[in-house]
Every structure is written in structure tokens, then in C-alpha cells.
Amino acid sequence: MKELYEIINQFSANEKNLMATVIEGEYFGEKALFSANKLLFKTSDDGFLSKHQHKILEITETGTYWIEDNRVFVEILGSDMKLVVCGGGHVAIQLIKIALMIGFKVIAIEDRPTFADNARRAGANHVICKPFEDGLAEIKGDKDTFFVIVTRGHRYDQICLEKIIEKENAYIGMLGSKVRVRTIKEALKEKGIDEECIERIYAPIGLKIGAETPEEIAVCIAAELIQVKNNAKRGSRYTKEILEGILTDNDDKTAKVLVTIVSKKGSTPRSEGTKMLVFPDGKQIGTIGGGCVEAEIIQKSLSLLDSHSTEPELYKLDMMGQNAEDEGMICGGINEVLLEKIQ
Questions:
Q1: In which domain, by residue range, is 124 found?
Q2: Which of 122, 131, 186, 249: CA 20 to 30 A from 160?
Q3: In the predicted model, what is the mean pLDDT of residues 307-325?
Q4: Residue 91 predicted with pLDDT over 60
């Protein structure tokens, strides 16, 4: 089964990558993996999913679907979310801190060594201290890469935009007044850059919440990043940490349980495709929402690890009515969670 996750680890984020798992019906537990409309992996040589791959490949959003008498969980797989911050001033530093908290891998580009050091101290995963055009030449971009331009002047903003607009991206945002933004957009049009691409730039950047301080402006930018990310509905992600946890063996007998939310109804904290990896000692990577619900699933995962069963298990977690009241839950919904033993 690890072959499956080795393939996922090599995926290009610019392709349509899709995993299908039967979660109810005669073929419960069967899996198939697709990339660029090609079947790359299947658990059954002549299985249900490979017979219905054309129908599966038409699906564009993560969720559960009925195919004949089987319910299938289909995940549109995204990669780690990456945020490229061009600039190292006050707003950039606060944005780096917030972006790390909400799950982005942050790359900062700043041409001034002192300001680049500030980005390092803020915790950026990678800092490039070079002229902006040279730093951006090192960034490939993909459908899960967000670019934010918060440099010290419109000349640098324009340099960054000219480099970024050519790259695959999930989002391009630029800080600045309406006049500054309009001036830069007009300069890009004069250079022959496609007007449709220019109009997709988020500028002025951020949700309108009346932000004034660097911290408040960073919050409004981060809120817009979250909005764009969630509207894209690329909720299923095997993070680098989870893939490393799956693929790294401490010994040949080490087993783990991969936990995935496959459906949700009502008010629940995490979306379909959210994942958590549970180890035999109770250690976990990722979260499905925390609290007593997560604690219950960790215990079920440990029970599965203690058993001889290799079959997946599907659990319904009721966070409504009396169940929620008894446990003091703030949510009010139902999650279905799939547990899969990996060894």
C-alpha cells in the first residue's frame, strides 16, 4: 500500500490528481488513484473503480458520490499550501506569522539583508535574500501557491508582478492605494500583458475590515487567502508531514492509521478530506478538529492497530442534540470518518 503514497509524494500540483475510495457497498475499501486522467494505482486488478473511471474523472469537487450501489469518496488532491511573500517590512512580518499559524509553508523574498533576517526570525520556512526578480526566478509556482506583494515601493511591486503573473498560481495580491494599483496595472497593459490576467490580481489586497495597523492589515490579507483557498475546494491534502509519517519506518512492524473525514453535515470544524495520522504510541500528525471527537477517533485508531484486522473502518460521529450537549461540544453536525491501517 505504501506504493500508493510514494506516487502521491511525487505528484505535480498542476495536474488534476484524484483519489477514489469505496466507503459503502460491495466493494468497500477498494481504492484507485488518478493523475492527468490516467489510472496510476488500483487495489483491485479488475475492480469496480477502474470499470467506472470515466464517471469518476468527471468529478471536480471532493465529496461522496453514489456509483451504482456503492458510495465512493472522491478526493481532489492538493499539495501543501505555499505562500510567497515579496517584501520584509512590518506588514510582511506579521503576515508571515499568521500564515504559518493557518497552515501555509512560507517563502519570503527580500533584497535587504536586515529585513530578510526579520523574516527568518518571524519563522518563514525559506528566505531568499536577493533582488526580487532573481528570487522569484527560483519559484516555480503551482495551483496551490499564493503570492503576496508587500514591497517598499511601486517600482518593486511592478517588477514582482511582471515575474509572478507568468507563473501558475492560486492567488496574486498586492498591497497599495487604488492610485498606485491603477498605475501599475496600466504599466503592465502597456507591456502587453494579458488584461484578463491583470484583472485577476487582488488589489488593493485583503478583505475590507477597516484595517489600520500592520497586524490588522495582515489579518485582512490572511482572511482573503483563507477565502480564496476554501472557495477552490481543494480540501484534500496529504501534507509533507503526513506523507513523511506514512513513508518513514522505524521498524518493519510499525503500523499507523490514516484518518480521513469523508463526509460532513451541519456545523463541524473541518471539511471533507481533512486527514490525521495516528501512531501506536498515540502520537498524531494533523488534526480532524480536536476535542473529545478527535480523542474518540484516536482511541478507535489504537484499537484498530491492536487488532489483526487490515480492513478499513468507517465511523459516524454525531455532534448534534443530546450527544453534543453531554460532551459540551460547540459544534452541531455529523462527520463520517474513515480509518485505514497502513503497514
A1: 82-231
A2: 122
A3: 77
A4: yes
Give the closest residue to 81 by CA, choosing from 244, 259, 221, 229: 229
- 119 close to 99: Cβ distance less than 8 angstroms: no
CA-CA distance, 258 to 310, in Å (whole number)? 12
Query: How far apart (Å, rounded) are the C-alpha atoms in residues 153 and 159?
Result: 10
Residue 73 confidence (pLDDT): 96
Strands in the chain per DSSP E: 17-24, 31-35, 38-42, 63-67, 70-78, 82-86, 105-109, 126-128, 145-149, 171-174, 236-237, 256-267, 275-278, 284-286, 313-318, 332-342
CA 71 to chain centre: 24
The domain tally of the chain equals 3
The predicted pLDDT at position 74 comes to 95
Quick: pLDDT tens for 162-215.
899 889 999 999 987 777 778 888 887 887 777 778 888 898 899 999 999 999
**In angstroms, what CA-CA distances link 139 with 83, 127, 144?**
11, 12, 12
Placement of cell 469496480 in the chain: 48
* Interstrand relation of 70-78 and 236-237 (parallel, antiparallel or unpaired): parallel
Question: Count of residues for the chain?
Answer: 343
267: how many CB neighbours lie within 10 A of its CB?
Answer: 14
Question: Do 138 and 124 share a structural domain?
Answer: yes
**The last residue of a domain, from among 56, 78, 100:** 78
pTM assigned to the model: 0.77
- Residue 65 sits in the same domain as residue 131: no
132, 253 in Cβ contact below 8 A?
Answer: no
Same domain, 74 and 87: no
3-state SS, residue 282: coil
Rg (CA), the chain: 22
Cβ atoms within 10 A of the Cβ of 228, count?
14
